[in-house]
Amino acid sequence: MSTKVRGHTSAVSSAKSCEDQRLMFYLDIARDRRAEECPHRDGAVSLSDYRNVINGGRFLFMREESLSTVYDPQAVEEKWYKFWQEQGYFHAEVNPDKEPFTIVIPPPNITSALHIGHAMDNAMQDIIIRQKRMQGYEALWMPGTDHASIATQVKIEAALAEEGVTRQELGRDKFLERAWAWKEKYGGEIINQLKKIGCSCDWERTRFTMDEGCSKAVREAFVRLYEQGLIYRGSYITNWCPSCQTVISDDEVEHEDHDSHIWYLRYPLQDGSGFIEVATTRPETMLGDTAIAVHPDDARYQSLVGQKAVLPLMERAIPIVADAYVDPEFGTGAVKVTPAHDPNDFAIGMRHQLAHVVVIGKDGKMTAEAGKYEGLDRYEARKIVLADLTSGGYLVKTEPHQHAVGHCYRCHSVIEPLVSLQWFV
Question: Is residue 58's pLDDT more than 80?
């Protein structure tokens, strides 16, 4: 049956069935937006015409009987995401008629596939960028991936280890080939993951942080900062990973409690009048001591400030200084100061102009400055140093002690504080 009506509102009331009423209602909603697509005959529209319009695809209203009882994401999401991309809905251009809005994606590392944290972060960005598009902005969501070179190197070396090959055995050129192959594999996988969760990035602009344009921009920014005096180079105590052979930032150091010991050592006074006793959790670093520090208000040691002690095993005279950093309640109230191997000692050394004696190298082994202990692993050196201190009568006592030890978040090796030449902002 075809009921002729003059207006959309009256059409709803004159419909003979609920289905006809729904169809007419949907057409009423769409009238103001796309009225020109409604076929008219002499000012009247039939219900069959409405059905033809809807079923022809010009208005996409789902019929109740066509709804599946189970949501099938593959049947829906891939289809519509492809449609969005083909229509260029995610692409942005310089448009003087619109206010720009841009999000640069925090580029995920190509170390491996994305995790749930990435999904949450990118979903929030997607919500924002889609809202800005609907508000009329020329909205760009700039996608890309990050090389994360050291972290990626660790992953590649782990894969090589499973093959029984080391980076050194493979050689530089072959290793670089592996690195780029890793980037192609995981970089592409990351982009596909972002697409799967519906991220509306402008994929035509996808960048990798080692692309030539990005690398050039980094060099340009670096030089500009240097010319403006905003960055400088200097020696400073750093978190050195002997395994990764690189410095890592403070927030990349993971601290874990270790059951260890605290060792009490006595250093002879240079004038032969007695000893000063110190406590340490790292006896192997005492080979690089350049001072002993006490609190300026500690009455026990005020008479010793300004005097010198003799460093056991190394027979080097070192000063006794007063510094407010020292906790009189820790150990004996007197601490050995090794500026090259402890951040707090480094700060004391800066205040008192103490020398930096590096006794542990970047490979985690003792250096020539460590004398007869040169070449030993730092933990092997600890055992031998303690044995020599004991035989020399310098070890007073040993107590169990639990303390936090820094580990590299990438390879889990124990961090070695080292003075290194670095750039600073």
Answer: no
Q: Tokens 């020109």 appear where?
A: 36
CB neighbour burial string for 98-133, b if at least 16 within 10 angstroms, e if fewer: eeebebebebbbbbeebeeebeeebeebbeebbebb
Helix (H), strand (E) at residue 391: helix 378-391
How high is the pLDDT of residue 249? 86
For 106, residues 6+ apart whose C-beta sits below 8 A from its C-beta are 121
Question: Strand, helix or coil at 319?
Answer: strand
What is the spatial distance between Cα 246 and Cα 240, in angstroms, rounded to a whole number?
6
Share of the chain above pLDDT 70, in %: 84
pTM of the model: 0.63
244 and 150 Cβ atoms separated by less than 8 Å:
yes
Q: Which residues contact 327 (CB under 8 A, 6 or more apart)?
A: 295, 333
d(CA 303, CA 306): 8
When mean pLDDT is compared across 23-32, 165-174, 238-247, 254-263, the lowest value belongs to: 23-32
